[in-house]
Amino acid sequence: MAEQQLYNAGNLSCQTIADSCDVLDEMIYPEYQDTLYADDTTWILTSAFIIFTMQSGFAMLEIGVSTPGNEVNVMLKNVCDLLFGTIAFFSFGYGIAYGEPSNGFMGMGDFAPSTNFDDPISSALFYGQFIFQLSFAMTSATIVSGATAMRIRFSVYCLYAFYSVLVYAFVAHWVWADNGWLAVRGVHDFAGGGPVHLLGGFNSLIAVLFLGPRKGRFDGTRPESVFAESSPTNQLLGLLILWFAWMLVATRTAVSTMNAAAGAVSWV
Fold first, then answer.
1. Left, alpha or beta for 112 (phi > 0: left; psi -120 to 50: alpha)?
2. For residues 152 and 161, what is the distance between their CA atoms, to the nearest angstrom?
3. What is the mean pLDDT of the chain?
4. Which of 183, 201, 80, 98 is nearest to 140 (CA)?
5. Residues 103-151: pLDDT tens digits?
6. Most buried one in 76, 119, 136, 231, CB count within 10 A?
7. How far apart are CA 199 and CA 203, in angstroms?
8. Number of helices (H) and strands (E), helices first, in the chain?
9. Is the dihedral of CA 119, 121, 122, 126 positive or negative?
10. DSSP string of 241-264, one letter each residue
């Protein structure tokens, strides 16, 4: 209870500081007030687009560790993450994760969301946030692509790409929605460690337990050379892309965490 009170006080203090800065900006730069929303939307979209590049990083890494001849299959699976995942998130996922009305388990509104296009400011802010949340959903889904490389039918993976985003939406609501049953119990996620990476890891574990190893990988029926990695160069290129994108994810979360911590310290 004390930790929750401290956290709430920190958030309140941060909001007070932010409001004070807004008032100061209005006094010093009144001509810029009508365009501040553009800065927020640009920051959110820039973060989202760089996170989307993790799809390329995953694809290059998976191609590098797979055997020759699987490159097109791996690339298409990552494309299907974006294609079917976007359809699922727009149709149902966003409403489950952040829709209103809602309860501690899921959102129950805002499916296939739309805004008033006569109001460009609210539309820009909403769709910027929507695309940012979509980038996290895609990252969670594509983790399984590497775990199941070379041993899953393409059509089956397309079905997975759709339903996995729906599973992600429930977990995202539990952790990130204001009334999520984990959020109200004091669970605080850092950089998607729970809804994105932990969920993707569990999905991968379930998949490999069902699929088993690649044929001949451990029973000696096929020579070791058959499973040789195709391209260390692609592995390193994928590593660099993921590294760069991950630094943005962690930095964006760290800035928010430091702001909350600063508010808590000032309250103490």
1. left
2. 13
3. 78
4. 201
5. 989 988 888 888 776 777 777 788 888 888 898 888 888 888 888 888 8
6. 136
7. 6
8. 9, 0
9. positive
10. HHHHHHHHHHHHHHHHHHHHHHHH
Q: Exposed, middle or buried: residue 85 (CB in 10 Å: 0-12, 13-18, 19+)?
A: buried
Ordered DSSP codes for 210-231:
HH-SPTTSSSSSS-GGGG--S-
**In the predicted model, what is the mean pLDDT of residues 76-105?**
90
Return the half-sphere exposure (C-beta side, CA atoms, 13 A cut-off) of residue 77. 29
As given in the structure block, the two tokens for residue 88 are 């699922």
Res 32 pLDDT > 50: no
Query: Two tokens at 198?
Result: 């932990």
Q: Rounded to an integer, what distance in angstroms lies between the CA atom of residue 55 and that of residue 33?
A: 36
Place of tokens 């009144």: 30
pLDDT at 169: 92
Phi, psi of 114 (to 5 degrees): -145, 165
